[in-house]
Amino acid sequence: xxxxxxxxxxxxxxxxxxxxxxxxxxxxxxxxxxxxxxxxxxxxxxxxxxxxxxxxxxxxxxxxxxxxxxxxxxxxxxxxxxxxxxxxxxxxxxxxxxxxxxxxxxxxxxxxxxxxxxxxxxxxxxxxxxxxxxxxxxxxxxxxxxxxxxxxxxxxxxxxxxxxxxxxxxxxxxxxxxxxxxxxxxxxxxxxxxxxxxxxxxxxxxxxxxxxxxxxxxxxxxxxxxxxxxxxxxxxxxxxxxxxxxxxxxxxxxxxxxxxxxxxxxxx
Length: 268
Known about the structure:
Order of helices and strands: HEEHEHEEEEEEH
Strand content: 15-25%
Oligomer: single chain
Largest sheet: 5 strands, mixed
Strand order of the largest sheet: 5-3-4-7-8
Number of strands: 9
Number of helices: 4
Shape: elongated
């Protein structure tokens, strides 16, 4: 008995295949930016939570020590030639080089023993390897503590005499605790010690970056304040490290002044 032929199965033509590939490419182009934004937002959220956790540790230390703030005494000596390797080290919330050991030996680590809260998930920087090149292990710390909050090293007369600071929470004012910077997401190229520093009116009003904030969060950084809340600040211009004691150009001045306003300016 003869059966009717079912015919040949129809295959994709080259044109149809190219159309399918083009559609997939268009969908990928539409979805990838959205996924990238979602990843960036998630990293910002984690970073903000890290800073809040550090803020809790900072407050807990003061509560355990009659309102006295945790020392911030690990400070590198910096000139226009960069870090000269001299670091004033006393008791400090953490030690200078951002290694895991230096975080663990800090005075705040006992209040939260998670290394993760010291590192921003968007920070891809690495430590310098023994040969002096970058490309070593990832940094364990992305944050620094403002010079204004007990930010004077025990062994450095310059900081102690020229950089205003509070050593108790109850002393904090002008601006008040909600406007007084504590922890900040710092640029990886200036994070050489445990303190985030800026020139003050008491010093000489020099308009330079001593330390520079990060801009890894959509051209912005995350900051924590003395009342415990954290904020995301977006900068008007990217924060690009070029040289130590970097002059602030006019376009960057609004960012510099905004951050300077969170730092204690006088000894009074």
